[in-house]
């Protein structure tokens, strides 16, 4: 990292282009979506590791960074069109995660993204050839530091189509310890991890309740399933 301390922005971008883009296999370079995912990786690396070592380098929004990387890599794509195509594609990639409940099923774990006001269940995008169970465990571990594999039940799962486009699969996991240590393993992705009371969260048909639906818009669609499971478990727990 010492080289970056005195490098110019032009030299840094050329170095990142070589690391993340130029040497990709031909079949990946022919895919705008694959190239843009690599640009995103380069952007994270730039913001998380390069800039902290060189205070003269500015923070760069992802769209502008994409254009700069395309230029440094001499790619034959229009960067704005490529960026828009990629952002559209990202909304269609399936997402997996977990609804983590305590033993009493009256609290759940939510995470808040970096510089975001919204709360959601721990989740992330499904990798190519990855099963949903593994994706959920991986994302929960990355975002909260919690090992979910021993508690997850493959048949306790809910899948919805968010806004009719993106498939979201959430495993409902009970018995998560409230005193479990939770610390994100990501950099500049998760700002906070917190337990919330189920009854305080908004749900479909009751958006004005509790904390308000706006900050929990990705939580609301799943709450009906949480309430149903809790009711079922409470009715059968002592029978």
UniProtKB/TrEMBL annotation:
One of its GO terms (biological process) is deadenylation-dependent decapping of nuclear-transcribed mRNA. GO terms for cellular component: P-body. It holds the Pfam family DCP2. SUPFAM superfamilies: Dcp2 domain-like, Nudix. Residues 91-218 form the Nudix hydrolase domain. It comes from the Eukaryota. Keywords: Cytoplasm, Hydrolase, Manganese, Metal-binding, RNA-binding. Its cofactor is Mn(2+). Transmembrane segments: none annotated. This is DCP2-domain-containing protein. It comes from Fistulina hepatica ATCC 64428.
């Amino acid at each position: 990292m010492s080289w970056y301390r005195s490098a110019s922005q032009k030299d840094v971008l050329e170095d990142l282009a070589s690391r993340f883009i130029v040497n990709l296999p031909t079949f990946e370079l022919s895919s705008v979506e694959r190239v843009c995912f690599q640009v995103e990786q380069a952007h994270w690396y730039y913001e998380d590791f390069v800039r902290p070592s060189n205070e003269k380098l500015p923070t760069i929004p992802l769209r502008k960074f994409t254009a700069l990387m395309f230029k440094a890599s001499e790619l034959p794509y229009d960067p704005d069109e490529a960026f828009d195509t990629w952002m559209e594609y990202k909304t269609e990639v399936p997402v997996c995660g977990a609804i983590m409940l305590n033993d009493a099923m009256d609290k759940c774990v939510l995470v808040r993204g970096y510089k975001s006001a919204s709360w959601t269940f721990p989740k992330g995008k499904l990798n190519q050839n990855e099963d949903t169970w593994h994706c959920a465990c991986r994302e929960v571990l990355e975002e909260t530091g919690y090992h979910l594999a021993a508690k997850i039940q493959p048949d306790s799962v809910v899948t919805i189509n968010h806004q009719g486009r993106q498939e979201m699969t959430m495993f409902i996991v009970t018995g998560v310890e409230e005193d479990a240590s939770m610390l994100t393993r990501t950099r500049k992705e998760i700002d906070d991890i917190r337990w919330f009371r189920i009854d305080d969260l908004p749900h479909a048909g009751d958006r004005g309740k509790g904390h308000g639906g706006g900050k929990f818009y990705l939580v609301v669609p799943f709450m009906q399933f949480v309430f149903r499971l809790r009711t079922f478990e409470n009715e059968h727990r002592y029978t």
